[in-house]
Amino acid sequence: MSQFSEYLLQIGLESYQTLLEENGYDDPDLISELTEEELVSIGVKRGHAKRAFLKAQDRNSTTVTTSSSSSSSSTTSTSSTNAPPATPTNPPPSKKIVMGKKGDDESDDEDKSDIAPSSSFGGPKLQSKVLCEGFLQKKGEEGFFGSKVWSKRYFKLFEEGRIAYYKNQQDVAYINIIELRGALSCEEFAGKQYAFKISMKTSARVYYLLAPNPGDKSRWISTLQQTRKLSVDGSVPIWIRNLPRKIDDRSVHFLSLSDPNAFVAEQTYHCDPITPEKMLEKLIGLTIEVSVPRDDHFSHPVTFKGELQYFAKQKSYALVNQEDNSVHFLGSAEHVTFNLLENKIADGVFRPSSLEWIVKSQEKDHLFKLSYNASDLFKWFASYSIILNPKETEMELRGFYTIKNKSGKTFENANLILIREPEDPATKKDEKKDEGSSLPIPMPKLGMFKFGKLPIPGLGGGSTKVDHGPDKRSFKYTYPERTTLRDNETKQLCFVSAKMPVKSVDYITYATPKYTKYASIDKSHGSDITTGQVDSALIFTWDKGFPLPGGQVKLQRQNKDGFGSDIVNTFNLSHYNPNDIILVPLQSLGRVSASRKQTGYNLDIDQLYCVETFELRVNNGREEEVRVILEESLYRWENYEITYDSIPHSRHPTHPRKIQWHLTIPPLDGVTINYSVFYSGLCIPESMMPKKEPTAATPPKK
User: Fold this and answer.
1) Less Cβ crowding at N or C end of the chain, within 10 Å?
2) Per-residue pLDDT at 652 exceeds 50
3) Are residues 280 and 253 in the same domain?
């Protein structure tokens, strides 16, 4: 008799051996961890479970007594010998099997004085992204006749597939870790409101967790169930469905949480277009019925029935009826209605976006994560509403993400990361017009190749000059809350709502060129900007901990009576980082003008430096004094030095390549500023550098 059978005989569960083995409980250690409710859920009668508990307690007390007697005898024997004293060694602890009580390593009492810090636990460190966190109650130790103990703990679900729980939210040392790589399922638990359970495969353990409200319960379950399930059966294909309308099959990544060595040996991506062509392709050789409408004089369409055949030479489809020896060609002008009769297509008439896999693994059941890239699934933009108080000292800023889901799939309780990438005009593709489908319909061809010019500089008449242009940057924005994005739904999410102090200023800017990857050494580059923009504006510091995405802004000012507001301006806001100073234009400042004139330029391309001088002029046509801030951008290169300025300048508070002048201009007067800037260490492409002539010592290469 095996140890497992002997143990079941001792506790009175020998008649349930087959049932326990079928459910994966084939070890005394696993049986000892089961509670009464868990045994009943497996199929053990409640009376038999209680009887097993009483016998297990008697067996436990016998084990403890035997262990104590052996320990005392050993100590006495050692003391009575005349051998030299040896270093005392602790005997290995005896293994006790207790029904209805968890092992010491799984207990979760309130007294945690013996908890080791997180660094003492084995396994990798918890350094991945936290997908979900919050307080939950965890069911700890429980006896058959004792009360259920639910302990409040702070849980964190990490992206690597682990759940760590802590005694308090601020704790760094975790109490224990739940490895989701051994999880079989996460589902609701009907025994308690707002409760759910995680069933484990490796230890046959079931973790019971209790959320404080239904919203948190749904959030945890949906996050844990983001991992999918599959069963591997040799070379039988596995279908992965419920995917977005179109994905990049080259970017598909499979990660098994049950078997890290599992991999996808074969993959086929299917996504049928919903067109008559694709449907008829699958119906060739089958008997179908076609209804073709007639003119307005007839209320019923004409019906044709027959076997669908395809004539490759004519590139057309036809219905062939052997009974009446008739053939009906499907014309392109007919609005045809197809009746498939009793024909059933195994994979459906139109197969949605899906993956067909052959997975190699030693395990049969898997929890796995699936990731992929896709394009044009979502469209989003940011917009703002600013309401300014009548005194122009405070504004209320609200920002919204507008997201349209065009993926063909609903994303429940999803995390949002919005990415804005720069548009490249060279890679834009012309949108193809949807001309509809027509019959006759050609069969799909294999190997559609098109020959053209290779996009290699210098070949096929192409130019060898490479235009590097300005640096392109991608910006990433996160939304702090989880949300549900339904298919074909447009949703607005408020990501900022704050009141901010502002200051009214008069500002002068010039529309100088943008910064480039290489130094700008063309003399005329930017020198044609001769007129400045003079605006009354609001200035404030963005002191939040996240960036502001670019978007359209509608600026309004409250009326003095407190009822209603007037639209002051509509403009586009650029991207701003935390602690940036933001300028909000109100309206143009009348009768104040600004001009800009290049007065000198000298370039030494061998020493990689240049010197440029400018004259800036501001005229005040008002009959009152004007205070303005004049801003100048040093766009040519990042290494610069102001060697001369007729009026002292100041550095821009946040931008490293801008300088400012704070000017006070008397009524009906003007101010002129002359300054000189020295750019050094210019970074210039080799194609623009002068070619060195070979010396006499080194003959020219042939």
Assistant:
1) C
2) yes
3) no
Burial class (CB in 10 A: 0-12, 13-18, 19+), 17: middle
Same domain, yes or no: 178 and 312: no
Banded pLDDT at 702 (limits 50, 70, 90): low
Distance CA(415)–CA(574), nearest Å, equals 25
Scan for tokens 């009668």, then name that residue: 45
Cβ density class 396-411: b for 16+ within 10 Å, e for less: ebebbbebebbbbbeb
Measure the CA–CA gap between 253 and 371, rounded to whole angstroms.
Answer: 5
Q: What is the pLDDT of residues 9-36, one digit of tens each?
A: 888 888 888 877 766 677 776 676 676 7
Same domain, 417 and 556: yes
In angstroms, the CA 438 to CA 441 distance is 7
Alpha helices in 257-320 (DSSP H): 276-283
Strand order in the sheet with 238-240: 238-240, 354-360, 263-270
Q: Are 232 and 361 in contact (CB under 8 A)?
A: yes
In terms of domains, do 154 and 13 share one? no
Say if residue 499 is in the same domain as residue 610: no
What are the DSSP E strand ranges found in 257-374?
A: 263-270, 287-292, 302-311, 316-321, 326-329, 337-339, 354-360, 365-373
Residue 197 backbone dihedrals phi, psi, to 5 degrees = -135, 150
Residues 340/283, Cβ–Cβ less than 8 Å: yes
Residue 702 one-letter amino acid: K
In CATH, what number is assigned to the domain containing residue 163? 2.30.29.30
CATH number at residue 54: 1.10.150.50
Beta bridge partners of 383: 400, 552
DSSP-assigned letter for residue 312: T
Sort 638 into a burial class: Cβ within 10 Å, 0-12 / 13-18 / 19+.
middle
Identity of the highest mean pLDDT range in 235-239, 439-443, 675-679: 675-679
Read off the pLDDT band of 509 (50, 70, 90): very high
Distances (CA, A) of 205 to 180, 198, 613: 12, 8, 78
pLDDT in tens, 90-118: 444 333 333 333 333 344 544 333 333 33
Name the residue type at position 326: S
CA pair distance 672, 620, nearest whole angstrom: 12
Which region holds residue 4: left if phi is over 0, alpha if psi is between -120 and 50, else beta?
Answer: alpha
In a domain, 91, yes or no: no
* pTM exceeding the 0.70 threshold for the entire prediction: no
Least confident of 43-52, 256-265, 679-688: 43-52
Domain assignment of residue 435, yes or no: no
Q: How far is CA 104 from CA 64, 96, 109, 114, in A?
A: 15, 11, 10, 11
* pLDDT per residue as tens digits for the range 149-208: 788 899 998 876 788 899 888 888 888 888 776 566 777 887 778 888 887 655 567 888
State mean pLDDT over 457-468. Answer: 38
Joined tokens for residue 403: 């997201």
Whether the per-residue pLDDT at 596 is higher than 70: the answer is yes
Q: Does 547 map to a domain?
A: yes
Residue 105 counted as domain residue? no
Q: Is the peptide bond before 455 cis (omega within 30 degrees of 0)?
A: no
Query: Tokens 């008449």 appear where?
Result: 461
